[in-house]
Each structure stands twice: as structure tokens, then as C-alpha cells.
Amino acid sequence: MRLVRALRHPVRPLVGLVELMRFRRRRRTLSDRYIAGDGVEIGALHQPLRVSDRARVRYIDRYDEAGLREHYPELAKLPLVPVDVIDDGEALATVTDASLNFVIANHFIEHTQSPLATIRNHLRVLRPGGVLYLAVPDKRRTFDVDREVTPLAHVLRDLEEGPAWSRAEHFRDWVVNVDRAPDVEARIVALSDADYSIHFHVWTPDGFLEMLEHARDELGMPFTIEEVQGNGIEFIVILRH
Prior knowledge:
Blueprint lengths: L1 E2 L12 H19 L2 E6 L12 E7 L3 H7 L13 E2 L13 E7 L8 H10 L1 E12 L14 H10 L2 H16 L4 H10 L11 H13 L6 E8 L2 E7 L1
Parallel strand pairs: 1-7, 2-3, 2-5, 3-4, 5-6
Antiparallel strand pairs: 6-8, 7-8
Helix pairs in contact: 5-6
């Protein structure tokens, strides 16, 4: 595993044109290195990963374009990628086992209610040697800065018992520490009823790696960690089946 030393220290926020160009270049460099063949990108919205002409991508989301614009009114004027497959990106129930060369899930895993179950399902649809490309927000450099890193014990309980036990508390954490709505209880109910896609979980690179290493070493999930690289507001993780 190649681990960028800077990940063990705070990373700079993404600001300015130079940083934005560097951010996009690192994503593209890793895409060119690992993404080829047939695959899917989950939840791309208006920011699909740029891929080379060696890759053929289908786009998966839980709503069609009209549904996405209704759910995310802040994206109303932005161009969205066409949704090829409507599916739950956590389960990928419509995707055949061992049928893909890659799965791209950028800024998605934090929205999942059971991250370990999600990773297991993403690995399920990959062929041997296939790649899972994850870009994960670094909570220290995003609006999640005031939230606690999700403990390993928490995601293990999500996997074992299902995520319903922690759903309400996630919405409370979001409303108090990110949304900062004045009427906390009403806002929690509104977001929960709408099934709004909040960041249910938050990580630093260390916390995320702890979860991955446990999944690999203790739960027997079939992957190797190929790359972990800091990238401004995020860190990018490449797993190989």
C-alpha cells in the first residue's frame, strides 16, 4: 500500500484556481491509472469523474434526473449526468455479481447508512482484479468539521444490526453541527421524512483506514488497498478486489 505521508497531518483546504486544478488533476491521474473496462459511477450528479477512453461508464442513482432536482433544489441550474440505472447505490441490487471492472463512488460512502455493507456490495459486483474508486470527504476540511469521527464500533453495529438504531441520532448530529437550524426537532423530522441524503458518517483518513483494515483483516472482505492519497477537502482510496 502506498500511503501519502501528508495524510497523517492536517491537509490544506481547497481554495483558489491553483488548488482546484491540482484537485482535478489528482482525481484524473488516479482515474487514468486504475479505471478501464466496464463499470459504474454512483451518485455522480453534476461532477462525474473524468475517465479515459479505455473506460465505459454507466451512471447509477436512486432517482431519475427530475427526482434528483426535486431532492436537491440547490442543483436546479447545474447540468446533471444522465442516470442510466435507478438503483440503491448501497445495495446495487440490479447489478450482476462479478460483472464490472470498476465502481466509482465519490463523496458517496459518507451518505450510506451502513458503510461496511455498502463496501461488501460494491466488492460483490466487481470481477477479480476490479477496482473500487472512493473519494471521501476529510471531515477536518468540510462542513463536518465540528462532528466526531464515526467510531469503528458504530459501523460494525450498523453491519450487524442494521442502521435503524442510529438513524435518528445521525439526523440530530447533522442538524445541530452542520445545518444549525433553530428548530432542531422540527428539522430532524423534516429531513428524516424526506429521506434526505445527509452525511450519516464522517471520517479522517486514519479513521477510514481503520475501518478498511478491519473489514479486510477481521471480516474477510476480499480487497487490497492500492492507494490512499490526500486531495484537498477529500482523500481518495483505491481498493482492488
